[in-house]
Amino acid sequence: MSTTATTSPPSHERVDPRVRRTRTDVRRAAGELLLEEGWDAVTHARVASAAGYSRATIYAHWPRPIDLLIEAFNHLGAIPHHEPTGDLRQDLIAELTIFRTVLVDHGLARVLATLADRATTSPELAEFRDSIVAEGNRLFETIFCQHQSQEQARLSSALVLGTVFYLATMTDEPISDDTLVGIADRVIG
Amino acid sequence: MSTTATTSPPSHERVDPRVRRTRTDVRRAAGELLLEEGWDAVTHARVASAAGYSRATIYAHWPRPIDLLIEAFNHLGAIPHHEPTGDLRQDLIAELTIFRTVLVDHGLARVLATLADRATTSPELAEFRDSIVAEGNRLFETIFCQHQSQEQARLSSALVLGTVFYLATMTDEPISDDTLVGIADRVIG
């Protein structure tokens, strides 16, 4: 749900501009392949070709297939988050609107369904799924924690994330602004 | 989520006991294959072999691969539902407890994630997914409708179904009784 969901990030954070540029290109190429052709298209060969780099370069920075998937998810999840104002209702509706954009307009719902499926047979993907869930919870718990106990905030976060995730993955119906406001108001109580 | 989720049911409802027996055997074999070996194991050949019938028999009653998947889901979702008492909180907690059993203990969460994934590229599976969602909504809306407007009941149903579905498909953490009670109490308000 954010730009920062990373399991084992590539190990070049003191970043040379060329490396940063490579990562941006690879992230975009991997994200577009994931969205347009599906999970199995995100291979070293396809990403190298789409991003315009050698396979050796891609392997050097992203040795495992999952490293490329993480970049693809980061591309799809990249969106500026709402700066909390302290107004619970307003902050919650704003962040839910961003969450809907990422899930529906960026197509993340579809690939999260694939991730949920494949994580059941891959510990590596289960770890990645857990990091994404933790990131989403952190985001919403931060908003709720200003007004609720830690325990209440955890439940509130599960309610809002879960409902929007379910509507986006299990139904084809559009998620209207009214629905988001309805979810927020019911969870705030 | 129930024994009755069927898209294009096999057309032999005035049922001869042998046919009923065949269906029970096929349903169980298909459900066990789905759970133990995954979606791609639910083929006419494998189901025929596991259930102890000829492939011709299986093809005669379940001509399409999706017909076998529907039987498999029906097997995993088969559970007696709670008879509503009219006490909203009690009825809701009872039905959520059954929903958790089906998702977690019967393993339906895993195959619903696969269904969400595959429905994005198959209109036939999207239709089946929609029938399952409609069945789940019907079940929970019936409980809420005794106490809420139709519109409120729809939202309540999405909140409870969505939250439990999300916890079961996107996390490995057990869903405790306290969590179910917390969800119920927050949605009832």
Q: Which regions of chain A contain 5 or more consecutive residues with pLDDT less than 50? A: 1-9
Oligomer: homodimer
Shape of chain A: elongated
User: Which CATH class of the largest domain in chain A is shown?
Assistant: Mainly Alpha
End-to-end Cα distance of chain A = 25 Å
In total, how many beta strands of chain A?
0
Order of helices and strands of chain A: HHHHHHHHH
- Helix/strand class of chain A: mainly alpha
Number of domains of chain A: 2
Q: What proportion strand of chain A? A: under 5%
Rg of chain A, please?
Answer: 18 Å
Main sheet attributes: strand count, strand direction, barrel closure of chain A = none
